[in-house]
């Protein structure tokens, strides 16, 4: 076991301790308070998913919110059908839709919904990835294509009112019944379910980044051309990580729709998508754990500060983001790593001063 | 047929606005590779500056144009000096930093002026329409179209017939060697960024009589303008102009065949395909990067 892995395991254990024991105890197991926190945890999943594609592989995906939205709509469609009983969902009546549209049919089944919320985003992400990476599109063009896709997808969702509820989204949802357990979102057990999903996603993410697969991904981030010369099929690696990232985003979207009890096209807005990037950047784009922490911290700050500065909150967010991008591009994680290295270096002989992980040259990082 | 002509004119009108916004973006992106997501907010600042000049100083839209240009260019110059200049080595991060700047500018306007929409009346001497058969063209829109062509011409002259333009082209081709010849690349970058911002301000001033002025008005425009830049190809002014015309017309004419939203979606899809198959745009210049 190398040192970096052991640090990550220590970090994950601490994080799990805080999330699974510290936070519930802090709010004295009050379900209503914990509900707000489950929202942060579901957002942490989408932030860590972005860290896989952006921080690890160097592909800035500005369309993360599109796959997130797909997951949330999958879940909301299932719950809407349950809420409507045998009849049609109410908004379809307002839009003169007489029979249940074909793509709504399968969402009666919970199994299908759970699979669809994970696999449809993954498939869409995969298709976009194949489309881009086979042509060796890189750098800012990845950001532009994913952004254009996001804008087009959101327009489409708003436009298809009869299918998606248009601008209003899907509201008035039923409670989810999972294996006979009727989920009350204001309960402690719901919080643990979301927390469990986040932990599973983090363990999966850490496993990926510490495997040989993750090593190749980092190599691609540093120099895609050189990795290609080593005989790796760069496009395949990029496609797989895009798929995984999109699938995780879809999963987070499903949880988010559960927590908020509605799905809305604002989940797919450009500003939401860039907000995900902000969380990831603040926490530290290179580490999935740090990205998750970033999402929780920024949203926690937003929850607390937007009460105090109703109007000024966005200003604070903008300034914070600017400062992070300019002065600490590796986020809070980068500060911790640098601090740790500085501490280790003081009493050290040259042998100990050797960095344990490959130092990143911030100029090459993009 | 009348519908087609009127929509074609509407498309021309959209294209003229897009052209001014996209020219600023294209110059900034072509010169320093910075994707300026705050560009829409520069447009918004221009619109608010026009509103302020009309409300408090009684200036008309056209009289206010030079003042708005200078004011927004100054804001752009400061932002370049303080923030963007530090990020030239990290192109992806400029996307994020300029987005942050955009949030800050938007919020500053919301706090300072308020979130309600503001209205600016167009100039009186440009009210009324010219009618040719069933084709109705508003004088103001015709003025905007003519003005955008003037801006394009002025920018072309600036790039090709002035000493600054020569320095700029030198820096685009090879920054290091230009610096060896005594060109201050940093200053060239600052002035270019300021000029691009100023153009966005002009666009903002020109659209105030056509759209309502709200703090979020720039966000939608910047995506369109950026697509124009990508389609046009980097570093090519005429390409940008052709792309603005193309996207404006396609959007307008598509909206007859299908509806507005689907028209936009089709344009976006077309642009994604274009980036995939011709990543250097439809009209790439010969500049080596």
Automatic annotation (TrEMBL), chain A:
**What is the protein's membrane topology class?**
Multi-pass membrane protein
InterPro entries according to UniProt: ABC_transp_permease, ABC_transptr_urea_perm_UrtC, LivM-like
Which branch of life, at top level?
A: Bacteria
Q: What organism does the record attribute this protein to?
A: Roseovarius lutimaris
Q: What is its main location?
A: membrane
Provide the alphabetized UniProt keywords: Cell membrane, Membrane, Transmembrane, Transmembrane helix
**NCBIfam families referenced in this protein's UniProt entry, alphabetically:** urea_trans_UrtC (TIGR03408)
Q: Name one cellular component (GO) term.
A: plasma membrane
Q: Record keywords: GTP-binding included?
A: no
Alphabetized CDD domains for the sequence: TM_PBP1_LivM_like
Q: Which residues cross the membrane?
A: 6-28, 40-60, 110-133, 140-158, 190-209, 230-256, 262-281, 288-306, 312-336
Location of this chain's protein in the cell: Cell membrane
User: Under the GO molecular function aspect, what terms does this record hold?
Assistant: branched-chain amino acid transmembrane transporter activity
* Protein name as annotated: Amino acid/amide ABC transporter membrane protein 2, HAAT family
UniProtKB/TrEMBL annotation, chain B:
> What Gene Ontology terms describe what this protein does at the molecular function level?
transmembrane transporter activity
Q: Which domain of life is it from?
A: Bacteria
Alphabetical GO biological process terms: amino acid transport
Q: Indicate where this protein resides in the cell.
A: Cell membrane
**Which CDD domains would you find in this protein's record?**
TM_PBP1_LivH_like
Q: Where is it mostly found? A: membrane
Look up the coiled coil feature and give its residue ranges.
none
Q: In its keyword annotation, does this UniProt entry include Transcription? A: no
Membrane topology term reads: Multi-pass membrane protein
Family, per entry: Belongs to the binding-protein-dependent transport system permease family. LivHM subfamily.
Q: What is this protein called?
A: Amino acid/amide ABC transporter membrane protein 1, HAAT family
Q: Which organism is it from?
A: Roseovarius lutimaris
């Amino acid at each position: 076991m190398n040192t970096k892995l052991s640090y990550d395991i220590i970090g994950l254990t601490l994080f799990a301790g805080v999330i699974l024991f510290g936070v519930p105890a802090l709010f004295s197991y009050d379900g209503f308070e914990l509900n707000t926190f489950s929202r942060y945890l579901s957002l942490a999943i989408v932030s860590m998913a972005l860290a896989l594609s952006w921080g690890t592989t160097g592909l800035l995906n500005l369309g993360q919110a599109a796959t997130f939205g797909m997951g949330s709509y999958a879940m909301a469609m299932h719950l809407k059908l349950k809420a409507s009983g045998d009849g049609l969902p109410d908004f379809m009546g307002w839009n003169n839709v007489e029979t249940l549209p074909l793509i709504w049919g399968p969402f009666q089944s919970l199994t299908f919904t759970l699979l669809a919320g994970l696999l449809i985003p993954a498939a869409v992400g995969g298709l976009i990835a194949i489309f881009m990476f086979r042509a060796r599109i890189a750098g800012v063009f990845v950001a532009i294509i994913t952004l254009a896709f996001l804008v087009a997808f959101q327009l489409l969702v708003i436009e298809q009112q009869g299918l998606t509820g248009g601008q209003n989204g899907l509201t008035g949802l039923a409670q989810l019944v999972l294996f006979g357990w009727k989920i009350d979102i204001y309960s402690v057990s719901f919080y643990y379910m979301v927390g469990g999903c986040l932990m599973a996603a983090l363990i999966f993410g850490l496993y990926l980044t510490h495997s040989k697969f993750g090593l190749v991904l980092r190599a691609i981030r540093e120099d895609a051309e050189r990795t290609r010369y080593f005989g790796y099929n760069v496009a395949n690696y990029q496609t797989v990580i895009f798929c995984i990232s999109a699938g995780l985003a879809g999963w987070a979207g499903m949880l988010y729709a559960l927590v908020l009890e509605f799905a809305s096209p604002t989940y797919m807005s450009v500003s939401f998508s860039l907000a995900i990037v902000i969380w990831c950047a603040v926490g530290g784009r290179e580490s999935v754990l740090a990205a998750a922490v970033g999402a929780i911290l920024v949203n926690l700050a937003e929850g607390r500060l937007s009460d105090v500065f109703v109007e000024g909150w966005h200003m604070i967010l903008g300034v914070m983001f600017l400062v992070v991008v300019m002065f600490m591009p590796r986020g809070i994680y980068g500060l911790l790593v640098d601090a740790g290295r500085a501490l280790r270096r003081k009493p050290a002989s040259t042998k100990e001063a050797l960095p344990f992980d490959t130092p990143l040259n911030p100029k090459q990082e993009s | 047929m009348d519908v087609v002509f009127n929509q074609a004119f509407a498309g021309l009108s959209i294209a003229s606005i897009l052209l001014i916004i996209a020219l600023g973006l294209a110059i900034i992106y072509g010169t320093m590779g910075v994707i300026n997501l705050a560009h829409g907010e520069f447009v918004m600042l221009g619109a608010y500056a026009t509103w302020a000049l009309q409300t408090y100083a009684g200036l008309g839209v056209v009289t206010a144009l030079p003042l708005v240009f200078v004011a927004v260019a100054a804001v752009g110059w400061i932002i370049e000096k303080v923030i963007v200049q530090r990020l030239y080595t990290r192109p992806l991060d400029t996307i994020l930093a300029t987005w942050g700047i955009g949030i800050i500018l938007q919020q500053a306007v919301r706090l300072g002026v308020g979130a309600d929409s503001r209205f600016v009346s167009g100039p009186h001497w440009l009210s009324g329409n010219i009618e040719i058969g069933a084709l109705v063209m508003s004088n103001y829109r015709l003025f905007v179209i003519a003005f955008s062509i003037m801006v394009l011409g002025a920018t072309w002259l600036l790039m090709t017939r002035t000493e600054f333009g020569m320095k700029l082209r030198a820096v685009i081709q090879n920054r290091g060697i230009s610096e060896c010849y005594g060109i201050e690349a940093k200053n060239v970058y600052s002035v270019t960024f300021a000029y691009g911002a100023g153009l966005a301000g002009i666009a903002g001033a020109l659209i105030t009589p056509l759209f309502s002025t709200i703090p979020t008005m720039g966000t939608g425009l910047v995506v369109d303008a950026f697509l124009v830049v990508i389609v046009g190809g980097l570093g090519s002014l005429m390409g940008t102009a052709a792309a603005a015309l193309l996207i404006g017309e396609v959007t307008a004419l598509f909206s007859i065949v299908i509806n507005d939203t689907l028209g936009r979606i089709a344009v976006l899809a077309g642009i994604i395909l274009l980036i995939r198959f011709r990543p250097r745009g439809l009209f790439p210049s010969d500049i080596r990067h």
